[in-house]
Write a structure and sequence with these properties.
By secondary structure, this protein is of the alpha+beta class. The longest helix has 41 residues. The chain is elongated.
């Protein structure tokens, strides 16, 4: 083993260690935030809540470590179901934490529990513009590839609009942009086994990262 390979292995170990520490820090931060949010929600008398659900249109973005350009995989249909709370800050702004079950791919049955944390702005009475973060935990996957290489946890940003209808009903549309990889594949281990002469391996590409992108269309009902 030459010095270059030794240095590469050392850098890979450091990178994996930093990613693991980052995930632990994010999980602790999310749990602490949810605990504080729950305490505030319990104490607040102005909190409203409701239920929501709808369709997911999910596709995946591939990014190679190397000279390969990014690419995307075709869309997959799924659905989401969940609940939300709305905590007003003022007449125009409010905080909206949610928890939802999200199936991003009905064919390969890829299921997540998602925790969107949104700031909502109401420019007019019936319209709300929403923007915030979204943390997702993989629950199950029927597809062996995703089960083997999943990171199990991801986060990103999400934004969209909600239009309020009479009698507590509303319709909404959102877009989720994953910032952390949902799956990471070590191509140095995968391709020498499958095909040692594969061009991707020959070009020196070491890692394949997969990011989720999801468009959501939903309907909901505000209970309180």
């Amino acid at each position: 083993m030459n010095r270059t390979e030794t240095n590469n292995e050392a850098m890979n170990r450091i990178s994996k260690s930093l990613r693991l520490r980052g995930k632990i820090f994010i999980k602790i931060s999310v749990l602490a935030f949810l605990f504080l949010s729950a305490a505030y929600l319990t104490a607040s008398a102005q909190v409203s809540f409701g239920v929501k659900g709808g369709l997911n249109l999910n596709y995946m973005s591939y990014k190679y470590e190397g000279n390969n350009p990014n690419s995307e995989l075709g869309s997959n249909l799924g659905f989401h179901l969940g609940t939300y709370f709305c905590v007003p800050f003022s007449e125009k702004f409010s905080f909206q934490p949610e928890i939802q079950f999200s199936r991003r791919d009905s064919k390969d049955v890829i299921d997540y529990i998602e925790l969107p944390l949104l700031i909502s702005y109401k420019p007019v009475r019936s319209l709300q513009v929403q923007l915030g973060s979204n943390v997702a935990f993989l629950v199950s996957s029927k597809e062996a590839f995703y089960s083997r290489y999943t990171n199990g946890f991801e986060f990103g940003v999400t934004g969209g609009v909600r239009y309020n209808l009479p009698k507590g009903f509303f319709v909404s549309g959102r877009y989720y942009f994953g910032l952390s990889a949902s799956h990471t594949v070590d191509l140095n281990k995968l391709y020498p086994i499958l095909d040692p002469n594969n061009p991707v391996y020959v070009q020196g590409v070491r890692e394949l990262n997969i990011y989720n992108r999801t468009i959501q269309f939903g309907i909901g009902y505000q209970i309180k």
